[in-house]
Amino acid sequence: MRKVLRQSRIAYVVLAFLMIVSSGCTLVNTTEEPSQTPTEVALQATEPLETATPRPTPTPTEAPLGEPTHPITMGFVLQPNHVAAADAAQEIAILISSDTGLAVETVIYPDFLSLSTAILDGDVDLFWLQPLEYLYLNGEGAADVMLVTNHLGVYAYGVRFLANGNRGFVSYFDNDLGESYGDPLSALQQFAGTRPCFISPQSLPGYFAPLGLLAETSTPTLDPVFVYDYSAAIRALYVGGICDFGVSYALIGDARTAGDILQDIPEAETEVVVIWQSEGIIPNLNLSVARDFPLNLEVKLQEAMLDLMDTPDGLTRLSTALNYEVNALKVEADSFYAPLRAILAPLELDYQGITQQTTPQ
Fold first, then answer.
1. Do residues 173 and 247 share a domain?
2. 233 within 8 A of 197, measured Cβ to Cβ
3. Which of 173, 182, 287, 357 could tie 274 with a disulfide, CB 3.0–4.6 Å?
4. Using one digit for the tens of pLDDT, what is the confidence trace for 162-192?
5. Could you read off the pLDDT of 297-325 as tens digits, one per residue?
């Protein structure tokens, strides 16, 4: 009986073992991952393959300044109807190119505002500037004088103070020598508390320069009368009752001998007297160069411009292009403007505002 029970137990154990093994096999089969569908295989095939990082494209090197693809630019301020001037400016560029072997082209601007914007943006290399325009751009670090024009026999002109001889002011001017003598402080301080006749609020020789000279000598005056014309200033002084003293240009002529004055009141030349006259403190129109312009090219262009003046039509072409009579050119440094800067310093002028609103006279 015990033997039968033992056999039954063994059979039971064997049966249980087989059931466990069978159950384990089933668990393994149920954990297998399902097969991929055709759609999933197709999606995997369309995924982009990793590629190498592309190398940056090299930036083309700019041609040297003066090459045909990178020409030197010379700026002129001309109106659209100034056809002859524009043609002459282009001829000048061609002649300079021929002389130097450098590519030079003319760029025309309608006003100083457009020109100065281009200069400050570095779009123009050479440019013609009036004195206050130069002081503005030089102060901005954008321009250095290269050449100064000779106009009516001088490279810089001056300022005259005049009055009716009956007013009792003492003259510090030698008519025979055409120059002043003595102390300018004594000469100008005679005008303290009197009324001037100035030309216009934008005029350098007819307002800013004389105003600076009066400030420099501590000479306060009454509010000015603006007469807007040098002949009108002479007439006002001759007639009297309008202003006590007046101003005009010096070294480039005599406002008292203008054609209309000689015709109408020839005696004004003797009755309106020069009280004092400055030296040449206002430079003429100049050719300036951008501050970062290569020095070796600057020297070449200086020589080419001076060579141009020696040609038969050089001065005529330049005068036509500038609408300004040019008798010669001279190399000058920024120190040429030191006297003008000193005279205008007490006024603390806004050069940008003055030059971009109107053309100084």
1. yes
2. yes
3. 173
4. 999 999 999 999 999 999 999 999 999 999 9
5. 999 999 999 999 999 899 999 999 999 99
Instruction: Tell me if 209 sits within 8 A of 227, measured CB to CB.
Output: no
Alpha carbons 178 and 246: distance in angstroms, whole number: 18
- Which residue shows structure tokens 């321009």? 143
Q: Which token pair is 212?
A: 């600076």
- To which residue do tokens 């002043």 refer? 180
CA 44, CA 151: separation in Å to the nearest integer?
84
User: Looking at 21-25, 154-158, 288-292, which range is the least confident one?
Assistant: 21-25
Same domain, 277 and 288: no
pLDDT band at 357 (very low <50, low <70, confident <90, very high): confident
Tracing tokens 């901005």 back to the chain, one arrives at 140
Tell whether 171 is covered by a domain: yes
Alpha-helical runs (H) found in the chain? 2-30, 38-46, 83-100, 112-120, 131-139, 184-188, 209-216, 230-239, 259-264, 268-271, 295-309, 314-322, 338-344, 351-357
How far is CA 49 from each of CA 41, 45, 138, 332, rounded to the nearest angstrom?
15, 10, 60, 68
Give the domain extent around 145: 72-152+284-337+345-357
Render pLDDT for 180-227 as a digit per residue (tens, 0 to 9): 999 999 999 999 999 999 999 999 999 999 999 999 999 999 999 999
Q: Which of the listed residues 282, 300, 317 is the one where a domain comes to its end?
A: 282
What one-character DSSP code corresponds to residue 208? I
| Distance, CA of 98 to CA of 157 (rounded, Å) | 34
User: Is residue 78 assigned to a domain?
Assistant: yes
Q: What is the dihedral of CA 310, 316, 320, 326, to 10 degrees?
A: 70
